[in-house]
Every structure is written in C-alpha cells, then in structure tokens.
Amino acid sequence: MLAVTAALVAFLASAASAAVPNWQQCGGMTWKGDTVCGSGAGCVKIKYVFPTHYSQCQPGAAPQDPTPVPEPEPPAATTVPGTPATTGTPAGVGPGRDLQTGYYWIRAVAAPNFHKYMQSKPLYGTGVAVLGDYTTAGQFQIVDGQLVQLVSGAAVKPEKLLYGVVSETRYINDLCLTVTWSETKNTYGTFKWNGDGLTWTVAGVKRPNEAAWYVCAGQQMYINLGNYLYGTPSGCADQTIHYYNDKRANN
C-alpha cells in the first residue's frame, strides 16, 4: 500500500511540473492548467479576448509582469540606415477593409504595439514595413517562402502583390535587418508560419528566436537576430507578430 501511495505522489508531482510547450496557453483569468513554460520560454500575456486575457509560452521570452504596461506615444518618424527611397506612388489600390480569401492580417499582440497591424509605408506602395493602425492594415500570405502583400482590389485578376524583402546589411545594433516592400521577390532567407507566429530564417545565421522582431522609430519593423527582450536598442521595442483571420481588422 505504501509503495502504491508513493508512486501515485511521484506521478502527481511529475504531472504538476510538466512544462507547457512553446506557443501553447500558460495563463488567463480563468485558466486552470499548467503555467510553467519549458526552458528558454516565457509565459507572455497576450489579451486576445476582452475583458479576459490569454497567455502563451513564447520561445526566448522572459516571464512578464502581469501588471499592464501603459502604451507610450509612438516615437517621431526618422530616417534610419537601410531605409530605401520610396516611389511615393502606391503599387496598388488595396484590397479593401474585408479580408480576402487566402490572406491574413498580421498584428502585434503585446505592449507597446498591442493590435498594431503590419502594412507598407507608403500604403500599398514600395517602401518600409511598419506597424500601424487597424484601419490601414495590409493583407498577407506566405507563398513558397515569400511574404506577400495583396495590393490590388478584390476583383483584379491576376492579383497584384508586393514582396517582403530582407536586407543582408545589419543596422542599429548590428543585429537588425530591415524589411521593405518591393515588386521583386526576396532573395535572402525564408518566411514561414510557426503556429500563428511569423518567422524568418536564413542559412548561416542562427537566431535565438526565429519569431523575434524590433519595432523602432517611425514604427519601422526590423528582424531581430539577437535575443528577445535582451539588449534591445534604444528607441526600439521587442515584438512577435501573429496572423489573424477575422473578417475585419480591429483594435
């Protein structure tokens, strides 16, 4: 009897300490399951559903303070190295406010850019990748490792696309790669979904967190080659960004 009891206690202790897998739920106002993430991951508060919240284990994320962080005013726009000259002319008229079949919204889900949406600047034009308001959110898909943005109207066939192009030159802290929009395909690295997270990889570069991004001056987006939530450059914020497929973008 004692042996059976001891075995049961050991089993329950093991089950209680099971680590939550990456990208799985680890918290929430009504969450009753495990809250401890695996090695190298942190339980990040996401706030998917108001007024409750949803926390998720994210690789490379340090445990976060449950106290909400007020969203600061966005920094003033500046021109940073790696910003290409823009044409000033939109590449398309845009697909409209309704999500088109086969495409996704892409948005940040944590402060200070909670529910800011990926788009191009100028809107629907060749230029930098930024996080902006939901009313001007872009629509995206990954096709053969290319991150594509739909910039033509819903009735236009064939569809007109812009491609997310990654710079091979490093900027700011030598760990930032610019992402811009071009009418020609990207030749450096591969985009893909990891769960609902947007990741980028390239041969010869080992990233601690393949889903790590920086959002810096002017809301410009960079791929972060370094550690998530560590060594963040002044004026930048760490972000992971995720797809969202509701009919309309919202804040």
From TrEMBL:
Residues 59-93 are annotated as: Disordered. Residues 76-92 have a biased composition (Low complexity). One of its GO terms (molecular function) is cellulose binding. Keywords: Signal. One of its GO terms (biological process) is carbohydrate metabolic process. Residues 18-58 form the CBM1 domain. InterPro entries: CBD (IPR000254), CBD_sf (IPR035971). Residues 65-75 have a biased composition (Pro residues). It holds the Pfam family CBM_1. PROSITE patterns: CBM1_2 (PS51164). Residues 1-18 form the signal peptide. GO terms for cellular component: extracellular region. Coiled coil: none annotated. It comes from the Eukaryota. This is Carbohydrate-binding module family 1 protein. It comes from Amniculicola lignicola CBS 123094.
